[in-house]
Design goal:
Elements (H helix, E strand, L loop, with lengths): L9 E6 L6 H8 L2 H4 L3 E6 L3 H9 L5 E5 L2 H7 L8 E6 L2 E2 L1 E6 H10 L1 H4 L7 H12 L6 E4 L5 H12 L9 E4 L5 H6 L5 E5 L2 H7 L3 E6 H4 L6 E6 H6 L1 H20 L1 H11 L9 H8 L2 E2 L8 E2 L4 E2 L10 H13 L9 H8 L2 H8 L21 E5 L2 E5 L21
Parallel strand pairs: 1-2, 1-3, 7-8, 7-9
Antiparallel strand pairs: 3-11, 4-11, 5-14, 6-9, 6-10, 12-13, 15-16
Helix pairs in contact: 1-13, 1-14, 5-7, 13-14, 13-18, 14-15, 16-17
């Protein structure tokens, strides 16, 4: 049903060439936007800084955005200040940490037991780093896609869990996602954390080996969101809700059956989206992820989650976790008003308003604790329940992120 009150119907949405732009690509190609009365053009951007800047200066109406960027841009970190809003998560999981094949071999020699573990700790890497330090060799360099990103925090969390100081024992550099594999192949970096298909590209060509996936670090953790400016959301409330409804439809379609995932891989292979061979996308999006060349793919059905487990709901507790990492690594002042920032940038109320026109069961709380569930669990809501996925963190940590009255466990 088309909303007759749409403030704007011709929209430009920014994407970065990654598998998790699938909801936007599918909504264009399968008619989900059109069904809401929207005509959407996608703009393929090469970097997250480009996404941020074009959203902030009004070149884009909305964009696929790394979830923490809504907070960092609102705070003005990185030189651009613009109040940002998200009312929709585009999915869960989807990243991995890949090491060069040479480095992985040295890690395996240093600690074969750790290298064989799943999830794999960074214990062997720590021994390699210590050995290099003893020989006065330069620290290893690893790539992340943006300073304030899930990728940066996942890599840092993994390193720090084995006693590696990400700020002193290694160098971290920013490289746009499409350039990661080439940088690794050229030897400019020793590893990286990035979304698909750029891990698979390195594995398929034999110069990279995956150490651990995002899902293994933190089961069903948040990744990309639909980002808009706060002023755009205020000026286009009906259009915003229509965007959300269209994208929820696309996310639902993606999670309905494997055939839809394979069709999505063919869509994403087109040059206006990712522009790589369809086979490099099809494996992970269909839940078959290859860690190393010459090894069989491992079944990872939740490598990408687009709709199930309430994946589209913008949990404010996710925002609280991002902010805790920004504070942990000295990116933001500890005195920041966390509650005010989170309530401004994360808008579950807008999501609920959009979902009111759909046959959806929606969480009634804005916060939940993380790391409490090793298995699937049920979230009770008025009039029904939601099946939620595991949220285990690989080192057993539990995060009571923010616990105002009514948060759920």
């Amino acid at each position: 049903m088309i909303d007759s009150q749409l403030e704007k119907t011709d929209l430009t949405l920014g994407i970065v060439p990654l598998t998790d732009c699938a909801p936007i690509a599918v909504a264009v190609e399968k008619g989900f936007f059109a069904a809401q009365g929207l005509s959407v053009t996608t703009s393929r951007e090469g970097s997250w800084a480009g996404i941020r800047d074009k959203i902030a200066f009004g070149v884009l109406d909305a964009a696929q955005m790394i979830a923490p960027m809504t907070l960092s841009t609102t705070l003005g970190l990185g030189g651009v200040q613009c109040d940002m809003v998200t009312a929709l998560s585009l999915g869960l999981n989807g990243n991995a940490i890949t090491l060069s094949s040479d480095l992985f071999g040295r890690v395996e020699d240093a600690d074969p037991e750790a290298a064989a573990m799943s999830p794999m700790p960074a214990r062997g890497l720590k021994r390699v780093i210590e050995e290099r330090s003893a020989r006065n060799l330069a620290p290893l360099t690893f790539g992340v896609v943006f300073p304030i990103s899930t990728h940066n925090y996942e890599l840092r969390y993994w390193l720090a869990s084995s006693g590696i100081d990400p700020d002193h024992d290694v160098n971290l550099v920013v490289i746009p996602p499409p350039q990661m594999a080439a940088a690794l192949k050229a030897g400019h970096i020793a590893g990286y954390c990035v979304g698909e298909p750029w891990n698979t590209v390195a594995v398929a060509d034999g110069f990279g080996r995956v150490a651990i996936t995002k899902h293994e670090i933190w089961n069903n953790s948040p990744e990309k969101v639909l980002g808009v400016t706060r002023s755009w959301a205020r000026a286009h409330p009906s259009t915003h809700r229509a965007l959300i409804r269209a994208l929820v439809g696309a996310c639902t379609w993606l999670d309905e059956r494997i055939e839809h995932r394979l069709e999505a891989a063919a869509i994403l292979a087109q040059p206006q989206y990712i522009g790589v061979d369809e086979a490099l996308i099809a494996g992970s999006i269909a839940g078959n992820f290859r860690y190393a060349a010459g090894e069989p793919a491992r079944r990872c059905p939740d490598f990408n989650v687009f709709h199930r487990y309430a994946a589209n709901f913008p949990w404010r507790s996710h925002a609280a976790w991002f902010l805790s990492q920004m504070q942990r690594w000295g990116q933001v002042d500890l005195a920041v008003d966390a509650q005010a920032l989170i309530q401004q940038a994360y808008r579950p109320d807008i999501y609920r308003g959009a979902a009111a026109g759909l046959d959806l069961t929606v969480p009634q709380e804005d916060y939940k604790n993380e790391g409490f569930h090793d298995e699937a669990w049920t979230l009770n809501v008025d009039g029904g329940h939601l099946l939620m996925g595991p949220d285990r963190i690989f080192d057993g940590e539990r995060f009571v992120l923010v616990q105002p009255a009514g948060s759920v466990r």
